[in-house]
């Protein structure tokens, strides 16, 4: 279904949602950064900047409690976290490179084990995507098979119109239901032209060719030359909308504490450290190789998709200037 | 008013680095040279390790050469070849870190060939690597730099850096602002800053002085510091980091530059440096010292802080 909404009505819609007690999360200024955070009012919404961190944390927070324990004498009390307490949420202003990562995460969090924490939040969330009209030189969605107006992952997709306002397209039942609930705020499309799309500079990669090379170059001197500079932090993985590794730890005392799930990264030296002390990925190039392999080979082998949406965040934050798009170009030319 | 900073010498410096790297690689003075090379995006750079004279032309020096390459010499970076003598490109701030590591017996001077940069300043951030170097975009560390010309290197291009225009002393001003706060206001400031931390450890990984093979904060049997990115664990991590660097940090400010969450980490380091200067008249420099201010004991040490 196609509808149209003015800028003013979109803001009114957000305020109406908030007034109803609905949780609305969108890009907002948070100190020196723009982050996806709960909006306190429609005026908080920022629509001209890609948030520093991705939307994955709406379903997969930086850190969350899994259970609580308490021990008194021989009595042990365990308290589960009830996923029913996760609030209904509307995510608004989500960039296509972020929204597209959500189905990618769905696949992995509902594969052999159903992650109730991820899936419960996911079921209670409506995603309103926002088409990009500007890109910087780190953006490369078009190079990995997506586009600045890709509807993947969005329940509703907003496309900025020339002269203001947005074209609204529903992409799912959730989107249809949302349009029906708030129909007063929308109008029929009047044929106003949509704004020109952003144009990331990179040409599409031949992802099949890249995967074919990865398929038989687990050992290759290129990994050393590419990754010798990697210092082994988790910045790339943490800002990535698709990276989803986590660790689980019990924190507290012998008497009481919590079991917590928190982001982990394959760049960390301890990531594959065995209890025996042996570490199969003992050097940084082996860890960086895993990052590329996971994104462009292993995930594809398993789920038939690429674990990268070209948002460019890892390129922007890498302390040592590692540019994943440059790495892919290098592999493609082999 | 924003003023452009004169970096016209950087092309001469690039040429000089290339010819020196070519020379020391072809006559086998060194087995490798660690320097900077251009990245894919306009203006971007990345560290590079070259091992043949033919690759010398890949080296560059621009205002986007921010990295403190000294981190690659530490034992934390096992992947970088340590055999034979290694050439490395250093700015004044980087050299002070290297000198600190020499003092801590982490490096041997005879195993290094130092290519010093007469530096006119670098950008504060690489979010826009093609940005022009101005009084606005220049790194905060450069605004308070008195070490534009490194001392004690094996090779320094014969270029005199243009004197920097008058720059606002951003760290000194911000520290003065924080010092004027009440302890509870200051605690609120840092609580908010640390709450942003996502424990990516970029600050640790780029730090030349964070060379511990087993970081206390990674331990889980037993857990010494809460690992999760939550207020208590974050605060503990940043205090451990600041204290472990006190009297050692040379001020390259890489921790702050690479923080993806914009935590002003170098403020902690600068505050420590200020205390060290006031208490022990000690500061990072170009002269190798066997002991640091906090690793030596003197009868006349100021003890007035013990109350």
Automatic annotation (TrEMBL), chain A:
Q: Which Pfam families match?
A: Fer4_22 (PF17179)
Keywords per UniProt: Iron, Iron-sulfur, Metal-binding
MF terms (GO), sorted A to Z: iron-sulfur cluster binding; metal ion binding
Transmembrane region(s): none
Q: Where is the 4Fe-4S ferredoxin-type domain?
A: 219-251, 299-327
Query: What protein is this chain from?
Result: 4Fe-4S dicluster domain-containing protein
Its lineage opens with: Bacteria, Pseudomonadati, Thermodesulfobacteriota, Desulfuromonadia, Geobacterales
From TrEMBL, chain B:
Q: What is this protein called?
A: 4Fe-4S dicluster domain-containing protein
Q: Which residues form the 4Fe-4S ferredoxin-type domain?
A: 187-209, 240-270
Please give the PROSITE patterns that the UniProt record associates with this protein.
4FE4S_FER_1 (PS00198), 4FE4S_FER_2 (PS51379)
Q: Which GO terms describe its molecular function?
A: iron-sulfur cluster binding; metal ion binding
Question: Which superkingdom?
Answer: Bacteria
Q: What organism is this sequence from?
A: Trichlorobacter thiogenes
Keywords, A to Z, come to:
Iron, Iron-sulfur, Metal-binding
Q: Which InterPro entries match?
A: 4Fe4S_Fe-S-bd, 4Fe4S_Fe_S_CS, Helical_ferredxn
Q: Which Gene3D superfamilies match?
A: Alpha-helical ferredoxin (1.10.1060.10)
